[in-house]
Each structure stands twice: as C-alpha cells, then as structure tokens.
C-alpha cells in the first residue's frame, strides 16, 4: 500500500490532470465585500489555480479582520444628480429614487428598472 504522496508528487499529478498553480507575488491585502460586512486579510499568501480554463484563487495565512458596511456610507456616495435622473426616468419622488439607488448599490439602471417594475405591480390590475 502506498502512502500519501509528497508535495512535489502531488503537484506533478495535478499538473498532469491539467491544473496550474501560480503564487501571486506582492499581495499585501485581500478584501472580500459582502452585503453587510467586509473581510480583510492582511499579508496573505495567494495562489491562482487554473483548472480546465477556470481560474480560482486560494487565500491562506495572514491576519483576518471584519468590518461592517454601513448603509449611511453607501448612501453618502449617491449623488444628487443621480437621484434626480432616476426620479425623472421612473416617475417617482426624490426620496423613493434615493432609496432605490441605495438598494441597487448606486446602479442607476437597476434602480430605474426596479422602480418601474414596482409601479407596474401596484398599477391598475
């Protein structure tokens, strides 16, 4: 019975199966954005793995911290001009337009479409 292959043997076997491993040099920080929080990893080791044309990233080590993403910060980034445009295009007031922009992460098209869909559902039926 054969034991567990060494690291070098395992890498050779994976390369024969079409996998490629490349360690990314100079990575100082990785940030993963979720809807309610941000995960930050300082000083990680990051490897890019390519399997059958698909690229994946493996993150290991480093110091991990989390910070909440506040709605106020996102709302502060929405410009008044964008609110006006969405309100005009969707036929709603500025408060509703701003709320739609916040929900869409500042994406004007998504906000307009969402508001138009809501209007269509609440219209005469």
Care to give the gist of this entry?
The protein is α+β, with helices and mostly antiparallel strands and 125 residues long. The protein folds into two domains: 7-68, Nascent polypeptide-associated complex domain (Ubiquitin Ligase Nedd4, Chain: W), CATH 2.20.70; 71-122, Helicase, Ruva Protein, domain 3 (Orthogonal Bundle).
Estimated radius of gyration: 23 Å
Percentage of residues in DSSP E strands: 25-35%
Task: Return the string of H and E elements.
Answer: HEEEEEEHHHH
Order of strands in the sheet with the most strands? 1-4-5
Q: What are the key terms here?
A:
alpha+beta; three-stranded antiparallel sheet; 5 helices; elongated; 30% strand; 2 domains; Ubiquitin Ligase Nedd4, Chain: W
Task: Describe the protein.
About 40% of the residues lie in helices and about 30% in strands. Helix 3 (about 80-90) packs parallel to helix 5 (about 110-120) and helix 4 crosses helix 5 (about 110-120). The mean pLDDT is about 85. The N and C termini lie far apart (about 70 Å). It has five helices and six strands. It has two domains: about 5-70, Nascent polypeptide-associated complex domain (Ubiquitin Ligase Nedd4, Chain: W), CATH 2.20.70; about 70-120, Orthogonal Bundle (Helicase, Ruva Protein, domain 3), CATH 1.10.8. The strands form two sheets. The chain has a three-stranded antiparallel sheet. It has a three-stranded antiparallel sheet with strand order 2-3-6, with no helix packed on it. It is of the alpha+beta class and about 120 residues long.
């Amino acid at each position: 019975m054969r034991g567990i292959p060494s690291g070098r043997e395992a890498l050779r076997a994976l390369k024969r199966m079409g996998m490629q491993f490349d360690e990314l040099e100079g990575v100082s920080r990785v940030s993963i954005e979720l809807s309610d929080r941000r995960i930050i990893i300082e000083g990680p080791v990051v490897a890019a793995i390519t399997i059958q044309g698909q690229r994946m990233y493996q993150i290991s080590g480093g110091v991990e911290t989390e910070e909440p993403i506040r709605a106020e910060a996102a709302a502060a980034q929405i410009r008044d001009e964008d609110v006006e445009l969405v309100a005009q295009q969707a036929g709603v007031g500025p408060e509703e337009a701003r709320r739609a922009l916040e929900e869409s992460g500042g994406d004007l098209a998504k906000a307009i479409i969402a508001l138009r869909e809501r209007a269509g559902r609440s219209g005469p039926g």
